[in-house]
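FAQ: What does the model actually see?

It sees only this:
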Amino acid sequence: MEAIWPDQPAFGFGIDSLNPHPPRGIEAVGGQTKREIRDQIVQTCPQVPGVYGMLSRKGDLIYVGKSKSLRSRLLSYFADSNKDEKGGRIIENTRAIQWETQPSDFAALVREQQLIRRFSPRWNVQGVPKRQRPVYLCLGRVPAPYFFLAAKPPQDCVGVEGPFYGAKRMQRAIDALNKVFRLRDCSQQQVFHFAEQLQLFDLEHRPGCLRLELNTCLGPCAAACTGDAYQTQVNAAQSFLEGFNDEPIVALQDQMENAAANQQYELAGRAYETLASVKYVHRKLAMLAKARRDYTFIYPVAGYDGCHTWYLIHGGELAAVAAAPKNAEQYARMKPTLEHWKAITANSIDRGHGAYPHTLNLVATWFRKNRAERQRTFLPEQAGRKYRAVLKKVG
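And it is asked to produce this:
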């Protein structure tokens, strides 16, 4: 196959909807051998933050990554110590590499997530040893919502959180959650009959499984509950999804202790594994709930190339972005934007769920790992004072 060379048109990454600065160019290198590609990286790739993409012989984007230092990161793929690892396997399938610089590490992280969601490169989600595929915990599917997993959540869910990692662990967790909240887990092909529904004939509806008899499901398929009763359980499940309900942990803890007390050690062991899975979900949900509750502010990020950026974080999500003003004239032009940002953040009850809900986990993880960055944030109504302080410091 013919190799992809730098003088050929680059594949490109497309529009960056979260870049308030002029579009950033794409650089690319290619060759028939790893040595050729490596030598070109040494000569042309800068030591700055950015995102990169690996292209196959056919020009398909097979992997996307990001780094604080593009050249160092890309050269690490060619190290002998990396030969049998993930990076070595990726580079064996690569015939060209393209990159796009970013003004900061945070900007590169946001751009990387955007590109993975846009292109779903196969080496980002499959074919990589020891790589766990992300899944989302969903509550939904009418007329009787329940917990389920999805790689790409449907639009009509009652609630969605994630991503989570470890499909087996997550499957064990949702099995337990549906049982604790007594929600159904059957196929959408199942016909549902709530107790208040009228019918022409007095028919007895049989349950589709044994869970009604085991008291782990309300039985919406057998008219064993009303729609309101089922909705009450859905509300309790939604409270767990929002990080405010530890009922499943208490129930599983009791189940494990009772089994151990009755010397049912196999049952206690299974309950212990399930409890560990649910605790993992609850910890993650609590972290995301804290982000929704506490993370509403402007996050100023300096760019190595002068492309300074103000990110509006609302309810833990990226809500908007703007180029940071560098002088009084630019600040004056930005005032209408700041007034709009004030309006967005004014409602304390509205916690996110905006245009970029998928950024919640990214933002929560970023500030958990970079706690000192939180001290640099400010509210939209404080922007003028913060801007003048920065201007005075520069002067």
